[in-house]
TrEMBL record:
<dbReference type="InterPro" id="IPR013740">
    <property type="entry name" value="Redoxin"/>
</dbReference>
<keyword id="KW-0732">Signal</keyword>
<feature type="domain" description="Thioredoxin">
    <location>
        <begin position="37"/>
        <end position="182"/>
    </location>
</feature>
<dbReference type="GO" id="GO:0017004">
    <property type="term" value="P:cytochrome complex assembly"/>
</dbReference>
<keyword id="KW-0201">Cytochrome c-type biogenesis</keyword>
<dbReference type="InterPro" id="IPR004799">
    <property type="entry name" value="Periplasmic_diS_OxRdtase_DsbE"/>
</dbReference>
<keyword id="KW-0676">Redox-active center</keyword>
<dbReference type="InterPro" id="IPR050553">
    <property type="entry name" value="Thioredoxin_ResA/DsbE_sf"/>
</dbReference>
<keyword id="KW-1015">Disulfide bond</keyword>
<dbReference type="GO" id="GO:0030288">
    <property type="term" value="C:outer membrane-bounded periplasmic space"/>
</dbReference>
<feature type="signal peptide">
    <location>
        <begin position="1"/>
        <end position="28"/>
    </location>
</feature>
<protein>
    <submittedName>
        <fullName>DsbE family thiol:disulfide interchange protein</fullName>
    </submittedName>
</protein>
<comment type="similarity">
    <text>Belongs to the thioredoxin family. DsbE subfamily.</text>
</comment>
<dbReference type="Pfam" id="PF08534">
    <property type="entry name" value="Redoxin"/>
</dbReference>
<dbReference type="InterPro" id="IPR017937">
    <property type="entry name" value="Thioredoxin_CS"/>
</dbReference>
<dbReference type="GO" id="GO:0015036">
    <property type="term" value="F:disulfide oxidoreductase activity"/>
</dbReference>
<dbReference type="InterPro" id="IPR013766">
    <property type="entry name" value="Thioredoxin_domain"/>
</dbReference>
């Protein structure tokens, strides 16, 4: 009898997860907007090695380095096809808006990541390396790309899952960024 408890519990967990996903979709929710338990909470504390930076000579980065600023954390990788699709939007909009955009290079080869930025442009004020994915786990990263909006107090205010389009930037992120910058 006890040998059936674990498989039954796993089956029940899978069914519950699928039911929540179907309910979320049936309610008309945008599949790009996945709820995050971190929205409204402080950015997870981490220290990560700097891969590239136009802003600092420091060998590592931590979120406290940007306290007092509204900033974005974009999780990306050179092996990610969707990241390549959103990258032109990041290059154009991050520089035009003056927002501090931090890249979290997720489970990638540092040499390939640097070459990718040279080839496609570097919109990030600093890019940190997360080779083992530990920082990504702290942020609840499901897949790349993901983008987090962080307010001046160091709280996560929004999570965007998937490649950002120009419309996403103009209609979702930019109004929130402007509102947070005025606060």
């Amino acid at each position: 009898m006890s040998r059936f408890v674990l498989p039954l519990a796993l089956f029940a967990a899978i069914v519950a997860t699928l039911a929540l996903g179907l309910r979320h979709q049936a309610e008309g929710a945008d599949p790009a907007v996945l709820p995050s338990a971190l929205v409204g909470h402080d950015v997870p504390a981490f220290t990560a090695p700097v891969l590239t930076s136009v802003r600092t000579e420091n060998a590592s980065f931590q979120p406290a380095d940007l306290k007092g600023q509204v900033w974005l954390l974009n999780v990306w990788a050179s092996w990610c096809t969707s990241c390549l699709h959103e990258h032109p939007v990041l290059v154009a909009r991050a520089q035009a808006s003056g927002i501090a955009l931090v890249g979290l290079n997720y489970q990638d080869d540092p040499g390939r990541a640097r070459a990718w930025l040279v080839e496609h442009g570097n919109p990030y004020v600093v890019t940190v390396s997360d080779n083992e994915g530990r920082v990504g786990i702290e942020f609840g990263v499901v897949a790349v790309p993901e983008t987090f909006v962080i307010d001046k107090r160091g709280r996560i205010r929004h999570k965007f899952t998937g490649p950002l389009s120009e419309a996403d930037w103009q209609q979702t992120l930019l109004p929130l960024i402007r509102e947070l910058q005025r606060a």
